[in-house]
């Protein structure tokens, strides 16, 4: 049960993104135009997964259900398999859906290439590598964003997906460090208390990170009495994730694709919880996972977090599409969540995940969209 819950949580953390329906609209006039358009310009997404064992007919059924009920775009996790993506993408497009290639970026459990290189994995402040010691859950196996070989491996996976025809974007999930703080609503389930940055959840203290930081700043994080107080050490790690994103952006665009990402609710919160500062990234769209129930918040918090992110992105050409956690809401609450996102400046809403959408949820989406 614990593992299931964590898995859902993790999946949802990774999820989101999208690329821009208005990618080419660069002028102010175009922008204003698109902002003034009616409801139809508000985009509806779902996250879903594929595996090679499923028959085409099963995907056709799933995608048709989305297409007929007002969903515009689907983010598909193929476990970075470009052949599977090339197989299912046309099926989604036939149902009228945009396709986005969803990849688990820095968290790479069971990655057969990475597993041959134990030194590619992040190391905690207490000296343990996620190669063999995983924080929180068994599928937390994170790569170091600083070490050249591990970051290049992640970028090569991005490139492989970006080359698939008929997709709109590569969608980065888990593009961050492991959670230094878990969402407050999840702590009791794991019997955890986190009132400060604890060593076993604080990464990356590998030799490459430490050496590079020491060369830059002439101090060693392994010697810090309270590393949470050292701003350069935090900034170093924020910058390392940003560097991976920025390079992924160039790779995606070199292949005429967008870059999108599933991120934490709003920038300051993402910074605090997972060392992720997405308002500073080169990226076409972000899908913050504004999962109110994980944080013991109410539905209006979806509006608050959406608006905070939109304001923080004001100087950048990055779209924000609010991500919501479907299992926590009935159809009426889902409609309220859509309103919260739309009324607070989001360009769309993404549902985690497609399989959790009931007939009532779908009916609500379809009706709301046609209003
Ligand atoms: Zn490292």
Keywords:
371 residues, alpha/beta, TIM Barrel, 11 helices, binds zinc ion
What does the model show?
With 371 residues, the chain is of the alpha/beta class. The chain has eleven helices and eight strands. Strands 1-2-3-4-5-6-7-8 form an eight-stranded parallel barrel, surrounded by six helices. The site of zinc ion (ZN) has 8 residues, from helix 6.
Topology of helices and strands:
Layout: H1 2-14, H2 28-36, E1 43-49, H3 56-68, E2 73-77, H4 82-94, E3 98-104, H5 148-162, E4 169-173, H6 207-217, H7 231-254, E5 258-263, H8 267-274, E6 285-288, H9 300-312, E7 319-325, H10 331-343, E8 348-352, H11 359-370
Parallel strand pairs: 1-2, 1-8, 2-3, 3-4, 4-5, 5-6, 6-7, 7-8
Helix pairs in contact: 5-7, 9-10, 10-11
Bound molecules: zinc ion.
């Amino acid at each position: 049960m614990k593992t299931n819950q964590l898995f859902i949580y993790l999946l949802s953390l990774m999820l989101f993104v999208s690329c821009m329906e208005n990618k080419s609209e660069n002028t102010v006039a175009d922008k204003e135009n698109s902002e003034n358009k009616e409801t139809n310009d508000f985009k509806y997404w779902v996250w879903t997964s594929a595996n090679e064992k499923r028959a085409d007919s099963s995907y056709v059924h799933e995608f048709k259900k989305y297409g007929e009920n007002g969903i515009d775009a689907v983010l598909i996790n193929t476990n970075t398999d470009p052949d599977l993506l090339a197989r299912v993408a046309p099926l989604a497009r036939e149902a009228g859906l945009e396709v986005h290639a969803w990849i688990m970026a820095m968290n790479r459990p069971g990655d057969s290439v990475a597993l041959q290189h134990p030194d590619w994995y992040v190391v905690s402040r207490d000296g343990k590598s996620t190669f063999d010691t995983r924080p929180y859950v068994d599928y937390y196996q994170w790569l170091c964003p600083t070490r050249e070989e591990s970051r290049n491996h992640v970028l090569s996976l991005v490139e492989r997906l970006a080359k698939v025809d008929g997709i709109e974007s590569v969608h980065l999930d888990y593009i961050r460090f492991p959670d230094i703080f878990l969402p407050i609503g999840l702590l009791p389930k794991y019997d955890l208390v986190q009132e400060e940055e604890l060593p076993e959840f604080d990464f990356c203290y590998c030799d490459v990170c430490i050496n590079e930081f020491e060369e830059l700043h002439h101090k060693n994080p392994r010697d810090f009495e309270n590393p949470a107080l050292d701003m350069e050490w935090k900034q170093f790690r924020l910058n390392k994730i940003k560097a991976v994103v920025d390079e992924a952006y160039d790779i995606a665009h070199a292949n005429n694709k967008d870059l999108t990402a599933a991120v934490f609710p709003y920038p300051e919160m993402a910074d605090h919880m997972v060392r992720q500062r997405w308002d500073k990234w080169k990226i076409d769209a972000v899908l913050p996972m504004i999962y109110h129930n994980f944080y013991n918040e109410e539905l209006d918090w979806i509006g608050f977090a959406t608006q905070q992110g939109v304001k923080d992105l004001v100087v950048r050409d990055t779209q924000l599409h609010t991500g919501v956690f479907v299992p926590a809401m009935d159809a009426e609450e889902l409609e309220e969540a859509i309103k919260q996102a739309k009324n607070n400046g989001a360009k769309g809403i993404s549902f985690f995940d497609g399989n959790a959408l009931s007939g009532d949820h779908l009916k609500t989406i379809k009706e709301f969209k046609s209003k």
